[in-house]
Amino acid sequence: MNRPLKKIALVKSEAASVEQKLYEVRKKIYPRAVTGWFATWRVVVVLLTQLLYYGAPWLTWNGRPAVLFDLAARKFYIFELVLFPQDFIFLAALLVISALSLFLFTAVGGRLFCGYACPQTVYTEIFLWIERRIEGDPLKQMKLDGRPWGPRKLALKAAKHGAWIAVAFWTGLTFVGYFTPIRVLLQELGHFGFGPWETFWVLFYGFATYGNAGWMREQVCKYMCPYARFQGVMFDPDTLVITYDVKRGEPRGARSKSADYREKGLGDCVDCGICVQVCPTGIDIRNGLQYECIGCAACIDACDQVMDKMGYPRGLIRYSTENAMAGKYPDTGILARLFRPRVLVYAGVLTAILVAFGATLYARVPLKVNIMRDRVAMVREAADGSIENVYRIQIINTAEHGHRYILTASGDGDLRLLPLREVVDVAPAATRIVAVRLRGLPREDQEGAQPVTFRVEALDDPRLSVEERANFMIGR
Q: I need a labelling partner for 71 at 20 to 30 A (CA). Which of 12, 190, 200, 271 fits?
């Protein structure tokens, strides 16, 4: 009677052990710092992106922030350019350009954006630098984490997290500074006068920076970022990716520098594990390309240093392509394969959109006109028997200085604008709505809607003119 129960208990125990294996507990990664050509480029990109991000809100232009997205006033300021909601097409074009650029860069060089310019990578690098400056190298960090809590450990951890929180808070404050002038934000901060939305976004963006770059790190790249999942669709056998030369490196094994490893049947890989120790996602590139690889090339710099110390040629881990590693063409043919149909199509479409986008911006007239009919009375008859329509004309001056505009109308028949020449003053980057009346004596053959053209022209600059069509309603 007891044996079946023991078997059931054993099965349940085995099932429980299997379930535990399905949930992997995160092990903290302690990536080693590395120097080299790619590491230098990564530092340069981090500095440039953060100089742009933190510095742009402080720039001024014509007495206002040079870059400001004023959601309350529905105006976007980008240096001389002032955009209104009617300019949504430019935002759509920027999104298309960003997507095509990502497709192009990925087809050519894999996850270049992830390894060098992605905010997750950039802020993780900043937080890692702070961690190393306060707690020391990875070995010291591991020893510190393994020790029981004491005054020294508490002081170091408090200093590290205090520095992280300061960077995260300033990052959140800068983010909100693109929507509310940064100088106004600092004044409000000094008087504890943040509004509810400003408080929410400063804390939310700051917390996201602190959590993602300080705690989650590679987990964001592995499990949260969708780009890691669909990058395989964007790669092809001629895409440049970080590769390990199996033919040259295997079989791997430890050896002394003076030993003749060829006689022992060993490859160039000394199995030092440095490539794994410097990887921010903790993968072993020698196992082949993996979706966790963010393309930072830290393993290339580390391996090249080991090869230099051993007196071996560099490039055991290098940028190459699947076809080149398979021997379908030599490494010298990689550059020629960059100009393949997929890349040329991406580059051609992207160039065309960039040219059209630039030409549209250059030819853009800083004046917009919207014609709205009066909703109270579409058609009414005047005392002299003429037909009168009333319109509300919205004039949007998107220039940085005010203009005086003259409004005229033309169409079939005897149409008169009342007053005949409406002159309207519009302040810089402002909108004004004026009501005008249009009268006409209808002919016998006229009935229904007749086309009419309104023209708005700046008196001080005839190049600033816009024509908009509307309908003149004739009742029967």
A: 190
Q: Report residue 348 as tokens.
A: 């051609």
How confident is the model over 187-232, as pLDDT tens digits?
Answer: 888 887 788 888 999 999 999 999 999 999 988 988 888 877 777 6
The CA-based dihedral angle spanning residues 42, 48, 51, 57, taken in that order and rounded to the nearest 10 degrees: -120
The whole-angstrom separation of Cα 425 and Cα 395 is: 10
Local confidence band at 11 (pLDDT 50, 70, 90 cut-offs): very low
Q: Contact, 435 vs 422, CB < 8 A?
A: no
Q: What angle separates helix 88-109 from helix 341-363, to the nearest 10 degrees?
A: 160
What whole-number distance in Å separates Cα of residue 87 and Cα of residue 73?
14
* CB-neighbour burial class of residue 446 (10 A; exposed 0-12, middle 13-18, buried 19+): middle
What whole-number distance in Å separates Cα of residue 285 and Cα of residue 102? 23
407 CB-near residues (< 8 Å, 6+ apart): 393, 395, 417, 421, 422, 423, 424, 434, 436, 454, 455, 456
Q: pTM to 2 decimals?
A: 0.81
Distance between CA 170 and CA 54 in Å, rounded? 9
* The two structure tokens encoding residue 61: 């232009």
Lowest mean pLDDT among 12-16, 33-37, 95-99, 112-116: 12-16
- Nearest Cα residue to 472 out of 407, 394, 415: 415
Domains in the chain (CATH in brackets) are: 367-474 (2.60.40.10)
Report whether pLDDT(471) > 60: yes
Consecutive H or E run containing 121 = helix 119-135
How far apart are the C-alpha atoms of 457 and 467, rounded to whole Å? Answer: 9
Q: Roughly what angle, to the nearest 10 degrees, separates helices 151-176 and 196-210?
A: 130
Bridge partners for 425 per DSSP:
404
CA pair distance 147, 229, nearest whole angstrom: 38
Q: What is the pLDDT of residues 362-415, one digit of tens each?
A: 888 888 888 888 777 767 777 777 788 888 888 888 888 888 898 888 877 677
All residues at 6 or more sequence positions from 371 whose CB lies less than 8 Å from its CB, including other chains: 391, 392, 393, 394, 454, 468, 469, 470
Helices (H) and strands (E) in the chain, counts: 17, 16
Helices (H), 177-310: 182-190, 196-210, 218-219, 227-234, 246-249, 274-277, 298-310
Tens of pLDDT, residue by residue over 81-129, are: 888 887 888 888 989 999 899 889 888 988 888 889 999 999 999 999 9
How far is the C-alpha of 261 from the C-alpha of 255, rounded, in Å?
A: 7
For residues 420 and 381, is the Cβ–Cβ distance under 8 A? Answer: no
Taking 80 as the threshold, does the pLDDT of residue 5 lie above it?
A: no
> What is the distance between the alpha carbons of residues 327 and 316, in angstroms, rounded to a whole number?
15
